[in-house]
Amino acid sequence: MTDPHRAPARLAARTAGLVRVVGAGLLGSSIGHALQGLGVDVALADASPAQLRLAIDYGAGRAARDDDRPALIVVAVPPDVVADVVERELAAFPGAVVTDVASVKLDPLHTLRERGIDLTHYIGSHPMAGRERGGAIAARADLFIGRPWVVCRDEETPASDLALVEGLALDLGATLLEMTPEEHDRAVALMSHVPQLVASLLAGRFVDAPDEAMNLAGQGVRDTTRIAHSAPELWVQILGANAAPVVDVLDALAADLAGVAEALRAPDGPGARRAVADTIRRGNDGVERLPGKHGQKRRFEQMVVMVDDTPGQLGRLFGDLGELEVNVEDLRLEHSPGAQFGLAEIGLVPGVLRRAVDGLEARGWKIASTSLD
């Protein structure tokens, strides 16, 4: 991440103070808010006049004008129209660098190449950021901070164009990654698109579940299905544009599920318990590969603190930890149905857990569990 105090000068100088954002939804408006905060003039355009007015009213930028001459254009439209909009923007502003932020990179690139479009000044990119809710109302200036931003360059990309797109990502607080379009689409199939389907399929099982079962819902199932709130219309486009890599992952996952189901049909049969254990263990190994705080690989020790469901309790907990000189590395909150308290699962660096537990208990906090138990 770059120094935020240096960001405005770098980006504003390279773009002559003007960035055109086409598409005033969640990503486009969030980019607008972030750039506005850096003192950059943001010209917004959207096919929907109502969406455009809403984004402007919320402060994501101003309406684009015919005399605008942007050096950088960010296309933030649905996947099925990315190629059309990129083609139009390249033609309308031949001196500008055009990037898009769609979650699929290969499909629009193939379409543009088939049309014979000169793509010298086009660079596909994709910030791995989003929310369950969409639209200008849900936009946030800090949406990209600490998130990966993939840039898909090729050997013909001018260095100055690449620097402009990379400067955008860095100034918005993102972490740069370079991939080919093929690498990107395979990666997001595994890390984004299939998880969306898995969450939606699991949450779909709740539709006909009895109320008694739903009352047992804890943080685990909420975490697993959190992204099931996503918009069907958008995901139909995303999954259709990246169908082949998604199917590859789904086929492998289906084989894994079939293997576990077969083992559980005869749980006392030869090798059945080992098959189940290996499945859980492989999941452990996979989770260990997920980057932690600041991209670190190390894991934290955990403690779970019971917190009364009354105002100010979390603030008091953090204040007590601060007095103990204990830094909170990670935090998750869980509420059980009907309970008048919550469970704060706190991640700490190894070596401070015992001090934190003893100090909190001395201050009257009840520790539900720790990784030392």
From TrEMBL:
Domain Prephenate/arogenate dehydrogenase: 17-294
Pfam families: PDH_C, PDH_N
Superkingdom assignment: Bacteria
Record InterPro entries: 6-PGluconate_DH-like_C_sf (IPR008927), NAD(P)-bd_dom_sf (IPR036291), PDH_C (IPR046825), PDH_N (IPR046826), Preph/Arog_dehydrog (IPR050812), Prephen_DH (IPR003099)
GO-annotated molecular function: NAD+ binding; prephenate dehydrogenase (NAD+) activity; prephenate dehydrogenase (NADP+) activity
Keywords: Oxidoreductase
One GO-annotated biological process of the protein: tyrosine biosynthetic process
Keyword Oxidoreductase: yes
Entries under SUPFAM superfamilies matching the protein: 6-phosphogluconate dehydrogenase C-terminal domain-like, NAD(P)-binding Rossmann-fold domains
Homology family: Belongs to the prephenate/arogenate dehydrogenase family.
The protein's name: Prephenate dehydrogenase
Organism, scientific name: Microbacterium telephonicum
